[in-house]
Write a structure and sequence with these properties.
Its EC number is 3.1.26.4. It catalyses: Endonucleolytic cleavage to 5'-phosphomonoester. The chain has 359 residues and is α/β, with parallel strands linked by helices. It folds into three domains: 33 residues, no CATH class; 174 residues, Ribonuclease H-like superfamily/Ribonuclease H (Nucleotidyltransferase, domain 5), CATH 3.30.420; 116 residues, no CATH class. Helices cover 46% and strands 15% of the residues. It has 17 helices and ten strands. The longest helix has 22 residues. The protein starts with a helix and ends with a helix. 30% of the residues are buried. Bound molecules: zinc ion (ZN). Zinc ion (ZN) binds next to loops.
Length: 359
């Protein structure tokens, strides 16, 4: 939807035009209303022009920097340090330019929606624009501690709008001047870099006047907002759904962390874990409900109904295994809910309760 919206292909008519089945269009439009970020101007990917920028990118290793120490240049060289910073939910960019014994500082507040990467790129762009008055033939060195920003300006692949604009500014500056873009390690005490870092923090703390976004929204921010909204909706649906009584007893809310773990499991382990968590297993409690067992009483301790919670937290016959694997002799449902799924699976397997099923 986001891609269609920003490429102008999104159907946004009230009656959905000629569409017979408009459910997806409607659902997506409703989603768009809940995430304002989707409608904001987007820092989308654009094709990079197949031209040389005319500037040089240099990536000295950390070892080289350790040996070389802080960069030294004579007064004829224009030296510029750039940095981006995010602090207390707002972003800022900065550039500190030194030339002929004079120092110029640029502070660019970027509001709440800009990412640090965007700030790093914008810092370089503003520095390049500010240096356009420098006479031709001058050597200019711009130091940035963002490898990804320099790499993005160097690569022949696709770039975003902001990277494209920065590339054009650098290209214009490099005309008849010698321009180098050099990576410098951050937080190792290099004076110019530390100063730019401080100024970027100040810029991040400055008040921004005007509506957000100050810069087009990064695709990463859009993806993240959609992911957060989808997780919220999933949790709401999970809470309002009346079924899955046993699963709800053992799982609090949907979790991407747990899902990501489960999809790494082999088929047998995933089946075992799902059976225990949903209660649809060969435990007596379930078999009795399905009229496949005469009794629902636990065949091991013979005390109480054999449910998933009984096996995981209560059955006396698995006290030692529980203590070894889960570090507790008994567990309540609330305690089971906070245990890592990997530990629960380990306990289920170590208990040997389901070994008979597979034989
Ligand atoms: Zn038992």
């Amino acid at each position: 939807m986001h891609r269609l919206w920003h490429s102008g292909a999104w159907i946004d008519r009230g009656d959905y035009g000629y569409l017979q089945r408009s459910n997806h269009v409607k659902a997506n439009r409703d989603m768009g209303k809940k995430i304002p970020l989707i409608a904001w101007p987007c820092d989308r990917r654009v094709s990079r022009p197949l031209v040389e920028g005319g500037f040089k990118t240099v990536f000295p290793s950390r070892k080289v920097w350790e040996q070389k120490g802080s960069p030294q240049h004579d007064d004829s060289v224009v030296v510029c340090y750039t940095d981006g910073s995010r602090h207390d939910g707002s972003t800022g960019a900065a550039a500190v330019i030194s030339w002929n014994g004079e120092k110029t500082t640029l502070r660019i507040p970027l509001g709440a929606s800009a990412t640090v990467f965007q700030a790093e790129v914008l810092a370089i762009r503003h520095a390049a624009d500010a240096l356009r008055h420098v006479p031709t033939g001058t050597r200019i060195v711009i130091y940035s501690d963002s490898k990804s920003a320099i790499q993005a300006l160097k690569t022949w692949n696709y770039m975003t709008l902001l990277v494209g604009e920065c590339f054009q500014s650098l290209k214009a500056l490099a005309t008849e001047r010698t321009l180098e873009l050099v990576w410098i390690p951050a937080h190792v005490g290099f004076e110019g870099n530390e100063e730019a870092d401080e100024v970027a923090k100040e810029a991040a703390g400055m008040t921004v006047y005007g509506p957000e976004p100050i810069v087009p929204v990064a695709m990463a921010s859009v993806r993240s907002a959609i992911r957060v909204k989808a997780a919220e909706q999933h949790t709401d649906m999970w809470r309002s759904y009346n079924g899955a009584r046993q699963t709800k007893e053992l799982i609090d809310v949907p979790s991407m962390r747990v899902s990501n773990y489960l999809v790494t499991l082999c088929r047998q382990d995933l089946r075992l874990f799902t059976q225990v968590i949903t209660g649809h297993s060969t435990l007596r409690g379930h078999l009795h409900r399905m009229r496949k067992a005469d009794s629902d009483v636990c065949p091991f301790c013979e005390v109480g109904r054999e449910t998933s919670l009984h096996l995981l937290g209560r059955c006396d016959c698995f006290l030692t295994t529980r203590l070894d694997v889960l570090e507790s002799q008994t567990l309540s449902a609330a305690e089971v809910r906070v245990i890592k799924p990997a530990s629960l699976l380990k306990f289920i397997k170590c208990s040997g309760r389901f070994t008979l099923d597979t034989q």
